[in-house]
């Protein structure tokens, strides 16, 4: 098999030659001792981008979320969020294991909810119940197919959280996808939340790392727990340089990934056995249903892999494809031909 394109995730992107030059030339120091100038620059740049007083560079998005939860919650607290939330599904139960919290689910299958949903989800003050402490919104919502939170809806949830004195965290792993799609600065969202995380290693194309931003006190607590969780790194400026390069060069181009995802979705929707409304595709994630006559999602993914298109099963009868900077339009076009051949042959045989 020759690989046509890898659409498993936007995490598969590799540093470009120019990004590697930025890495090679980075000025570094010992960031655990607080003197890596490139990490400091990234943190300042990110704080400004996100409109928060302080920011902290961390090894992964999971750690950004985990630190945020640990910094805010005590053991026995509860987080209100969607059941689609990354922290619940893909972080090995870290909220329970590392912060001792439970989760209470609200919202729809794309991960969206409203301010009015918060009040009824809050536990009564009573010695039997967990303490409701925090709300998480995920923007864009990964399991929800890259769905974008409307800014006004985040504002509405933010107002409800202030009213009920709950900390609002935005898992903004792909926040900049939402911002580029809507044409708004990140601050339009982040002024409504207490803390926000952002991944550099997804569509932005950096090899490693995420940022978490919030108040000075919040970031001071995250800084302490980053050390406790083993995420304090020494000459991390090599990695931070890639993140700075990504912020300077790879943000506006996310629009190309969105256009490619839309194009891919429109072609997929025409294929036999694929269930997809292309209008549901808002950013760079395409999730589609697989008719049983094409087999299970895992079967189809294996046949697509053999035909040179890598993707992932997102459920027993669901496949996810993600566009990114190492999947240019020409590769997507070739992938479409290969996918159509696989689905067409299978549908004819069934
Ligand atoms: C990828 C992702 C993360 C973090 O993932 P890591 O692999 O730990 O960097 C967090 N939230 C969402 C929504 C994600 O898609």
Give a structural overview.
The protein contains 14 helices and 13 strands. α7 links the parallel β5 (131-138) and β6. It has 350 residues and is an alpha/beta fold. It has a seven-stranded mixed sheet with strand order 2-8-7-6-5-3-4, sandwiched between helices. Strands 9-10-13-12 form a four-stranded antiparallel sheet. A two-stranded parallel sheet has the order 1-11. It has two domains: 13-249, Type I PLP-dependent aspartate aminotransferase-like (Major domain) (Aspartate Aminotransferase, domain 2, 3-Layer(aba) Sandwich); 253-349, Alpha-Beta Complex (Aspartate Aminotransferase, domain 1), CATH 3.90.1150.10. The radius of gyration is 21 Å and the shape is globular. Bound molecules: pyridoxal-5'-phosphate. Pyridoxal-5'-phosphate (PLP) is lined by residues 60-62, 65, 86, 138, 142, 171, 173, 199, 201-202, 210. Pyridoxal-5'-phosphate is lined by residues 60-62, 65, 86, 138, 142, 171, 173, 199, 201-202, 210.
Fold blueprint:
Blueprint: E1 5-6, H1 17-24, H2 37-50, E2 54-58, H3 61-72, E3 77-81, H4 86-89, H5 94-99, E4 102-105, H6 118-121, E5 131-138, H7 151-163, E6 167-171, H8 175-182, H9 187-190, E7 195-199, E8 210-214, H10 216-228, H11 237-249, H12 254-269, E9 274-275, E10 285-290, H13 297-306, E11 309-310, E12 312-315, E13 318-322, H14 329-349
CA(first)-CA(last) distance: 24 Å
Question: Compounds present?
Answer: pyridoxal-5'-phosphate
Q: In the CATH hierarchy, what is the superfamily of the largest domain?
A: Type I PLP-dependent aspartate aminotransferase-like (Major domain)
Biggest sheet strand order reads: 2-8-7-6-5-3-4
CATH fold annotation of the largest domain? Aspartate Aminotransferase, domain 2
**Total beta strand runs:** 13
Radius of gyration: 21 Å
- For the record, the count of structural domains works out to 2
N to C succession of SSEs: EHHEHEHHEHEHEHHEEHHHEEHEEEH
Shape-level CATH architecture of the largest domain = 3-Layer(aba) Sandwich
Helical amount among residues, as a percent range?
Answer: 40-55%
Report the mean per-residue pLDDT as an integer: 97
Structural class: alpha/beta
User: Regarding quaternary structure, how should these chains be classified?
Assistant: single chain
Total DSSP helices: 14
Largest sheet: 7 strands, mixed
**Poorly predicted ranges:** none
What coarse outline follows from CA principal-axis ratios? globular
Report strand %: 15-25%
């Amino acid at each position: 098999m020759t690989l046509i394109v890898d659409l498993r995730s936007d995490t598969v992107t590799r540093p470009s030659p120019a990004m590697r030059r930025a890495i090679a030339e980075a000025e570094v120091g010992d960031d655990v001792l607080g003197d890596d100038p490139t990490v400091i620059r990234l943190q300042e740049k990110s704080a400004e981008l996100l409109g928060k007083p302080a920011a902290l560079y961390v090894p992964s998005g999971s750690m950004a979320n985990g630190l945020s939860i640990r910094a805010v919650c005590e053991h026995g607290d509860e987080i209100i969020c969607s059941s689609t939330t990354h922290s619940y599904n893909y972080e090995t139960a870290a909220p329970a294991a590392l912060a001792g919290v439970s989760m209470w689910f609200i919202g729809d299958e794309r991960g969206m909810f409203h301010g009015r949903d918060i009040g009824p989800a809050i536990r009564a003050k009573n010695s039997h119940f967990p303490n409701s402490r925090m709300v998480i919104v995920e923007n864009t919502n990964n399991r929800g197919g890259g769905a974008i939170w409307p800014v006004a809806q985040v504002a509405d949830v933010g107002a409800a959280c202030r009213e009920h004195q709950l900390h609002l965290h935005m898992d903004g792993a792909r926040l900049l996808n939402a911002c580029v799609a809507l044409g708004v600065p990140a601050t339009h969202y982040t002024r409504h939340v207490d803390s926000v995380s952002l991944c550099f290693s997804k569509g932005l194309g950096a090899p490693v790392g995420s940022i978490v931003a919030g108040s000075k006190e919040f970031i001071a607590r995250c800084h302490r727990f980053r050390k406790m969780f083993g995420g304090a790194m020494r000459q991390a400026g090599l990695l931070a340089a890639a993140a700075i390069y990504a912020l300077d060069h790879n943000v506006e181009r996310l629009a190309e990934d969105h256009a490619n995802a839309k194009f891919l979705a429109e072609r997929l929707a025409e294929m036999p056995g694929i269930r997809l409304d292309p209008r549901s595709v808002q950013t760079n994630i395409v999730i589609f249903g697989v008719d049983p006559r094409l087999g299970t999602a895992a079967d189809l993914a294996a046949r697509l892999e053999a035909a040179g298109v890598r993707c992932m099963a997102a459920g027993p009868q669901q496949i996810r494809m993600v566009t990114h900077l190492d999947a240019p339009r020409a590769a997507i076009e070739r992938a479409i031909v290969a996918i159509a051949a696989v689905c067409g042959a299978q549908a004819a045989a069934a």
